[in-house]
Amino acid sequence: MPDSKTDTHATSVINWLRGTAFPPDSPAIHMALYTVAPGEAGGGTEVTGGAYARITGWAFDVPSGSGPVVTANTGAITWLPATANWGLVAGFAILDALTAGNMLYFGSVGVSKSVLTDDTAEISAGDFDLTED
Q: What is the pTM for the complete model shown?
């Protein structure tokens, strides 16, 4: 068994997240926020209510590097303003469906942030790094 993905495969995965079809006919991807960060087996507690919804449509840089291959978001990733408190956002996940679906990536946010009524959750350009080894 290989110890890790090849750089070619890692680049393909990142390019898929940038909008290139991989595998063929791949579904849209969505980013979700969590008040309890998910883990390798999924789980976590996704934000609900207050106009919260998973988002799609962000852009990433062209992948670079070799073992690991890396990229970062080229623009801000922004959710609609909260119409009620979302709570303390501690994690995120990238999933393949608008609701439910398969978790593709997960992680904790660098610094947890309370999203209150009228706040806008946002990840600034260049602050969301993806690494494929």
A: 0.81
Of 34, 30, 13, the C-alpha closest to 22 is 13
Helix, strand or coil, per DSSP, at residue 2: coil
Residue 22, token pair as written in the block: 């991989």
Tens of pLDDT along the chain (133 residues)?
A: 123 344 655 676 788 888 876 655 556 889 999 999 988 777 899 999 999 999 998 899 999 999 888 999 999 999 999 999 999 999 998 888 898 887 878 888 888 999 999 999 999 999 988 887 7
Distance (Å) of CA 67 to CA 11, 22, 63, 64:
10, 20, 12, 10
Beta bridge partners of 42: 39
Two tokens, residue 7: 């750089």
Question: Measured on CA atoms in the order 84, 86, 88, 94, is the torsion positive or negative?
Answer: negative
Report residue 119 as tokens: 């706040």
Cα three-residue angle 104-83-42, rounded to 5 degrees = 20
Other residues' Cβ atoms within 10 Å of the Cβ of residue 61:
16
Q: What is the enclosing helix (H) or strand (E) of 11?
A: helix 7-17
